[in-house]
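Morning!

This is the sequence you dropped in the shared folder:
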Amino acid sequence: MPFPKALIPVSLRGYKAAWFGPDILAGVTLAAVAIPEVMGYTSISQTPIVTGLYTILLPLAAFALLGSSKLLVVGGDSATAAILAAGLAGAGIAGLQPESPQWVALCGLTALITGVILLIARLLRLGFLGDFLSASVLIGFLTGVGVQVATGQIPDILGVPKGSGNWFQQQWAWMSDLGAVSWPTLAYGAATIGIIFAFKAFLPKIPGAIVAVVGLLTLATLTDASSYGVEVVGAIQGGLPPIGLPQGIELSDIAALLPTAFSCFFIVIAQSAATSRSFALKHGDRADVNRDIIGLSAANIAAGLSGTFVVNGSPTKTQILDGVKGRTQVANLVVVLVTLIVLLFLTDLLTDLPKAVLGGVVFVIGLELIDVKGLVRVSRRRPRELVIAIITAFTVVVVGVGAGIVLALVLSLLDVIERQYKARALVVEPNPGGGYTYEDAAPGTQSAPGLIVFRFDADLFFANASGFTDRVEALVSSAPDPVRWFILDCTSIPDVDYSAGQSLADVTDYLHKRDIHVILARPEKQLLETFERYDLMERISPQHIFDDLDKAIAAFPAAAN
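The structure's back. Tokens below.
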């Protein structure tokens, strides 16, 4: 009896036996990179190191079983970790201290809230919200996060205390304390960075991060690094994570954490959707963002119930998985298994790992988030959007990640509104040999003596309705010949809101008073139904509605004779 298809995870349907070997190897390779990486992220989230391992245990398994993407890797992420730490610090919860049980509990609560928001988004089919962070804004946001993440590791690499206050005060703190640098600590941090970059340059197929971690951990253990002033991670709690609701939370905490959870939600949606889509297209698959949201929701709920922080789809880890020929989520389930083995049997081996090594790993991750190439591409192709990206990055660094995500959303929405507000308006001129010439709808332009064919390339809504009306009036009043027909090419007007409908009715009346016939060409059925609701069809004769622009233009000379 065949296994019921409905019980097979979407990401594993159609699995081929030939993929199993590559998936096993890819999973082991990814685990070697992901484990030290997520341990390093705990320095950003300010949680115990073991919580980093928890982010790729149950959360990754939950996504693998419930998501749709074959390759997307879910786990701790630098951007959401930075948002989380900044949000908790600014939540105004009395007596809250980083790495304390209360801090960890609130991290778990934030993950639960984020998971619930994701679930609601899926029920409302809000996967499209991932498109509301433009590429330039996202580049700027992640660049700002990269600067914050990288510079935040400098004290650990130098072996000096971390400063407090805003970003500038934190940088001044370690700069003014250079006389207290621990040179052995710096050696470990610098060696980590050097090894990672050396492998990227000369042996890119070998993960330099794991080479650095294993090699320097071995050295630190053999030489007892802590005895000569190198701070090590110390004892790590082994075993399975605590399962259950975060302890000691209150209802008031939920309200305090909502802004942070919503910020994480938007980044999870935007980053995960972009990563899932890009890798699906690369392999000829179809991305199901709404289905992935179910997996992301389950992953964050699993994180909240297993004592860790918000998880996200990781473009860097997904790229690693793809680069080592992983084919499906079986590779990620292997990562889960390796992580489980580490938690159950190998945490004691990590006791002597220098914090400077983890700081070096995360420092490189931060540098890689600073998308210089992306900024250069934006500057060459769309200089105006470079300004938006830089403003976003500067806000993230100077004001904070929470403010950065709000600004990123606002700038993206303003960009959409401005594009619609400044929509291109054209006058269509038929060519004698066939086809059309499109001219900007400048006063004095006409399609033919007595004829204006007007095309407006956007939805008509309250913000651009007056501009639409002004352009129509300017074209008609400045036409070289008295206008008899005004053809509105509706091919680029999918919708009209109520305010624009009123304006369209007014401009129709204006044209009729000047003995100008209003003609509709190529309107969609839905648009005509909208016009019907706005009583516009009472103003336009059914004979003046054409499903083809050629027919509408051809009818003009006959009507004029």
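Headline: The chain is about 60% helix and 5% strand.

More detail when I'm at my desk.
O.
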